[in-house]
Specification:
alpha+beta; 12-stranded mixed beta sheet; about 300 residues
Length: about 300
């Protein structure tokens, strides 16, 4: 009897593996996964194609996260994942040990009449924002660790600041659920080209290094420490994205000479008092900045 049961289970496993190796099986798996994740976020997720699907490796194309209005917030053109199956079995977590992304587009756009940036609207309910300190998560646990990315472009339209683009960015990232149940992203070793659009004199700059975080649902939405090369000068600065009643506003903190930062003030970026230190040392207020990163990583 036990031998018959074992053979039956092995046959089911073999059939499942064979099914997932076929296009129809991969499409069914993609539909199931995007339905599960779309049910957990205010926006939705679409998977264009899964080219390869095993328990220890996934390769997919055109993975898109959209806002509730159907507007793209984040797109991965090509992504490879090494899933952490044990965490899925133990915790129900969607987790990977490492990932590689080639080609991506991030939209940090604040639309008139809408609450928050596109990325926030895709991942966080309106009712969740502004209620820091309470667990507002929908139940999904996400942890995409050790994500190496290249050829990432992003478009930023925030408050009264000019349209801003990051082109051909590369670096490391982690996408995860923080201890309040909100989506968070950490970035490190970023290199990219930056440019403005729609100004009488647009500016181009090389981002020589940058690190920081984006945390949806918190007043301090984003915080980045970076060194940029612009107009022949190297400048170290901290960039804050602050989400308040008037919408999202950028703020800069730096130890550069005030005269060298005049162009940022012209672009609608608020210049505030210099505070030395790494990104985690530069915060507005403890209650606005969100949970400590040490707590998040537990």
């Amino acid at each position: 009897m036990l031998a018959a049961v074992a053979l039956f289970v092995l046959a089911l496993v073999a059939a499942a593996r064979l099914h997932l190796s076929l296009p129809v099986g991969r499409r069914a798996a993609a539909d199931a996964l995007q339905a599960v994740i779309s049910n957990e976020i205010p926006g939705s997720m679409r998977i264009g194609e899964i080219d390869e699907l095993r328990t220890d490796y996934v390769r997919a194309r055109d993975v898109v996260f959209t806002t509730p209005e159907g507007e793209e917030a984040l797109r991965f053109r090509r992504i490879e994942l090494d899933p952490d199956v044990r965490r899925f079995v133990r915790e129900g977590a969607i987790a990977v040990r490492r990932a590689r992304i080639e080609g991506a587009m991030l939209y940090m756009i604040e639309r008139e009449g809408e609450d928050g940036l596109g990325l926030e609207r895709a991942f966080d309910d309106d009712d969740d924002r502004g209620s820091e300190g309470e667990d507002q998560g929908r139940g999904i646990t996400l942890d995409l660790a050790n994500v190496a990315f290249q050829d990432l472009d992003s478009e930023w339209r925030v408050g009264d600041a000019p349209e801003f683009h990051l082109d051909d960015a590369s670096g490391l990232a982690r996408f995860y659920t923080d201890d309040q149940g909100r989506i968070a992203m950490r970035f490190d070793r970023i290199r990219a080209e930056a440019r403005t659009e729609g100004l009488p004199m647009n500016v181009r700059a090389d981002i020589e290094r940058a690190s920081g975080r984006i945390r949806t649902g918190w007043r301090q939405l984003g915080l980045f420490e970076m060194r940029i090369a612009v107009l022949g000068s190297d400048i170290d600065l901290d960039l804050h994205l602050v989400d308040g009643e008037g919408g999202v506003r950028p703020r800069l903190q730096t130890d550069a000479e005030p005269g060298s930062l005049g162009m940022f003030a012209m672009f609608g970026v608020e210049l505030v008092t210099t505070i030395a230190g790494a990104p985690d040392a530069v915060q507005l207020d403890d209650e606005d900045a969100g949970p400590d990163d040490d707590e998040e990583s537990k």
